[in-house]
Amino acid sequence: MSELNSPFARLLQEQVSHEFTAQQQYVALAVWFDARDLPQLAGFYYRQALEERNHAMMIVQYLLDRDIPPRIPGISEVRNDFGSPTEMVALALAQEEQVTAQIEALFKAARDEGDFLGEQFILWFLKEQVEEVASMKTLLTICERAGSDYFKIEDFVARETGSEAEDPSAPSAAGGAL
């Protein structure tokens, strides 16, 4: 089977769409928080959106580097109506858990095909997903404890999250990471 039509290559192409959809979902969450004057939560999800965009572009760069023509897809519909931060963070956690399953499937496909370069590329994403799921689980716990006092959540986000140092082991993103 040619590399262009391998299950791994097909899953990578699909993952670009998943990452862009996740980006837009995080933008929708950020805008909801922004509209309610919750700048820490809005900023947290705007940063998450950029991270998902960068993940998509890392995959695009990898496809380019492997001479597999990337396809830039449309995205699935995203949810825009929410009732509470707890509901929104639960959605974000479910999204990250779904992405983890997708990344695991990519790793398995690379391994099954004996694609050592693909396997090595996906390892970084597996590490990233451990961090993403843990972050959303913690934020969900904080939201559940804070109840309707959104400012306690804002205080937590301001105190415990922020800009992280650039990961030197991260794959390159097509066009550069934002």
From TrEMBL:
This is Ferritin. InterPro entries: Ferritin, Ferritin-like, Ferritin-like_diiron, Ferritin-like_SF, Ferritin_DPS_dom, Ferritin_prok. SUPFAM superfamilies: Ferritin-like. Keywords: Iron, Iron storage, Metal-binding, Oxidoreductase. It comes from Kineosporia succinea. Residues 2-147 form the Ferritin-like diiron domain.
